[in-house]
C-alpha cells in the first residue's frame, strides 16, 4: 500500500508557537526516549516501525516541503501543491502523481492519513489491514474509525449501518456527522458511531475514474498546471460522502487530535518546559516557554501559559479551543520560522522617515547545513557572528567566519553561508528601501564551494 501523508494547516490553533510558517505538526514539543519529537516525526517513526514508510509521499504546499525535509530527511518525497487549496485537490494531485510519475498501477491501493494525528503504535498495525478490508468488503473506500472514549464535539463521527460481528472485522457505513454538540455526541456513541480519524484507503483507479467523471483531468501535469481551478473543497465532501460502497474498520486504542493546548499538554510528562516556575498551588497549570526569559505561574490553577517569539498566550485550559478565532481576528504575523537549514526570529522591524527599512533577525543554521547561493537586488545584509564556525562565500570567494566577526553583503552580491562546526548563530540586519522575502535570486553553487 502506498501512503499519501497530508501536511497542511494554517498554524493558528497552537499559537503562539505555531504559525503560517510552522504549523502544529512541526512543533518539537512531544517526547520519545527523552528526546524532543514533533507530531510529524512521531508519525514517520511509527510508519517506519510498521514498514509503511517505504512507499510514503508527503502532500503539502508552500514552505512546508522545506520543513518536512528538514525534520524527516532530504530524501523525503514531497508532492508540492502549486497553491494551498483543500484536501480534495491535494489528494487528487497526489494520486495523479503516483500514477504518472511514480509508476503506480490503477489497481494499487493507496492509503491517506494526516500527519498531525496522535495514536498508539497499534493504530498502524490496524492501518496495515485496510487493503484486506477493501478486498473483503468490496468497498470503494475503507476508513479507520476510533471507538470513542468520551462524548466530544471536536471530532466528526462515522455512523455504521450494521452491528459488529465476530466473523466480520469491518462495518458498513451509513452516514457521517460533522462535529456534533455533546448531547448529539452521546446519542451517536450509543448508536455505535466512531470517531472519524481522517484515515482511509482506496484503489488508485477509483479516484482517477472519479476525476474524469467530474470533468477533471486525471493527468498529473494538467492537474498541476490548472490546480488553482480545482474545486476548493474537502475530500470528504467531494468524494467520501458521494460514495455508496463504504466500510469502516473499528479501532479500539489510543487516538486523538492534538488540536488544542489542553489536549496537547495531556501528552506531556512535565508541566514545565523552558525557563520558569509553577507554584504548588497552581495545580494542573502548564508552561511551555521557547523564550530565554523565565515565565512563572503563582497560585493560579488550571491555566496554560505559552511563550514564543510570536507572542505570549495565557488561557484557561478548557477555553483553549477558541484560540484560532482570536488569532484570525487580530491578524498576528509570524516572527519565528523554521527552515530546512535551521531557524530565524525577527527581532525588530524599523522604518526611517526616508523610507529606509532595517529588519533585524536572529539566525541559527543547524550543523552541517547551509543557506543556498543567492543574491538580493534591493537590500544589503550585515551578519554579526555570535557562535559556531561558519563557511561564507561572497561572489565565489570563500572564507571561514568565527564569533565576533562581521560580514557585509552588498545588494547584487552572490553569497552563501553554512555551519561548519556546530550550529552557527548570527545576527542579520537587512537594510534597504525594499526588504522582502521575494527579493531573492538563486544560483547553482560555484565550483569553489
UniProtKB/TrEMBL annotation:
Q: Does the keyword Transferase apply?
A: yes
Domain Nucleotidyl transferase intervals: 4-267
Its keywords, alphabetically, are: Nucleotidyltransferase, Transferase
Q: Name one GO biological process term.
A: polysaccharide metabolic process
Residues covered by the Mannose-6-phosphate isomerase type II C-terminal domain: 339-444
Q: Does the keyword Transferase apply?
A: yes
Kindly name one Pfam family recorded for this protein: MannoseP_isomer
Q: Which GO terms describe its molecular function?
A: mannose-1-phosphate guanylyltransferase (GTP) activity
Q: What is this protein called?
A: Mannose-1-phosphate guanylyltransferase
Amino acid at each position: 500500500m502506498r501512503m499519501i501523508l497530508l501536511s497542511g494547516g494554517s498554524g493558528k490553533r497552537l499559537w503562539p508557537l505555531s504559525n503560517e510558517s510552522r504549523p502544529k505538526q512541526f512543533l518539537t514539543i512531544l517526547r520519545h526516549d527523552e528526546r524532543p519529537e514533533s507530531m510529524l516525526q512521531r508519525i514517520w517513526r511509527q510508519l517506519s516501525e510498521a514498514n509503511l514508510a517505504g512507499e510514503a509521499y508527503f502532500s503539502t504546499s508552500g514552505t512546508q516541503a522545506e520543513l518536512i525535509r528538514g525534520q524527516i530527511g532530504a530524501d523525503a518525497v514531497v508532492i508540492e501543491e502549486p497553491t494551498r487549496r483543500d484536501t480534495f485537490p491535494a489528494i487528487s494531485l497526489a494520486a495523479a502523481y503516483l500514477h504518472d510519475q511514480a509508476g503506480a498501477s490503477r489497481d494499487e491501493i493507496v492509503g491517506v492519513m494526516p500527519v498531525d494525528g496522535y495514536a498508539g503504535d497499534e493504530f498502524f498495525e490496524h492501518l496495515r489491514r485496510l487493503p484486506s478490508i477493501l478486498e473483503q468488503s468490496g468497498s470503494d473506500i475503507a476508513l479507520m474509525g476510533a471507538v470513542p472514549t468520551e462524548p466530544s464535539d471536536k471530532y466528526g463521527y462515522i455512523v455504521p449501518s450494521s452491528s459488529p460481528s465476530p466473523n466480520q472485522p469491518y462495518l458498513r457505513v451509513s452516514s457521517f456527522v460533522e462535529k456534533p454538540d455533546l448531547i448529539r455526541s452521546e446519542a451517536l456513541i450509543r448508536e455505535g458511531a466512531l470517531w472519524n480519524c481522517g484515515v482511509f484507503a482506496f484503489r488508485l483507479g477509483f479516484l482517477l475514474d472519479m476525476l474524469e467523471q467530474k470533468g477533471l483531468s486525471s493527468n498529473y501535469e494538467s492537474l498541476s498546471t490548472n490546480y488553482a481551478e480545482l474545486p476548493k473543497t474537502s475530500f470528504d465532501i467531494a468524494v467520501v460522502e458521494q460514495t455508496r460502497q463504504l466500510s469502516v474498520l473499528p479501532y479500539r486504542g489510543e487516538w486523538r487530535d492534538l488540536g488544542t493546548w489542553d489536549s496537547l499538554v495531556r501528552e506531556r510528562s512535565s508541566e514545565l518546559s523552558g525557563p520558569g516556575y509553577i507554584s504548588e498551588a497552581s495545580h494542573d497549570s502548564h508552561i511551555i516557554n521557547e523564550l530565554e526569559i523565565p515565565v512563572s505561574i503563582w497560585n493560579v490553577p488550571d491555566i496554560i501559559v505559552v511563550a514564543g517569539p510570536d507572542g505570549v498566550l495565557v488561557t484557561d485550559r478548557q477555553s483553549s479551543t477558541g484560540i484560532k478565532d482570536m488569532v484570525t481576528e487580530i491578524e498576528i504575523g509570524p516572527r519565528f520560522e523554521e527552515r530546512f537549514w535551521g531557524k530565524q526570529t525577527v527581532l525588530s522591524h524599523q522604518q526611517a522617515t526616508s523610507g529606509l527599512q532595517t529588519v533585524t533577525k536572529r539566525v541559527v543554521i543547524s550543523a552541517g547545513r547551509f543557506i543556498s547561493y543567492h543574491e538580493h537586488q534591493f537590500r544589503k545584509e550585515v551578519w554579526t557572528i555570535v557562535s559556531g564556525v561558519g563557511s561564507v562565500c561572497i561572489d565565489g570567494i570563500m572564507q571561514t567566519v568565527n564569533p565576533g566577526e562581521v560580514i557585509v553583503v552588498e545588494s547584487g552580491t552572490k553569497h552563501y553561508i553554512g555551519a561548519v562546526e556546530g550550529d552557527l548563530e548570527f545576527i542579520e540586519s537587512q537594510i534597504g528601501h525594499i526588504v522582502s522575502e521575494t527579493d531573492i535570486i538563486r544560483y547553482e553553487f560555484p565550483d569553489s564551494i
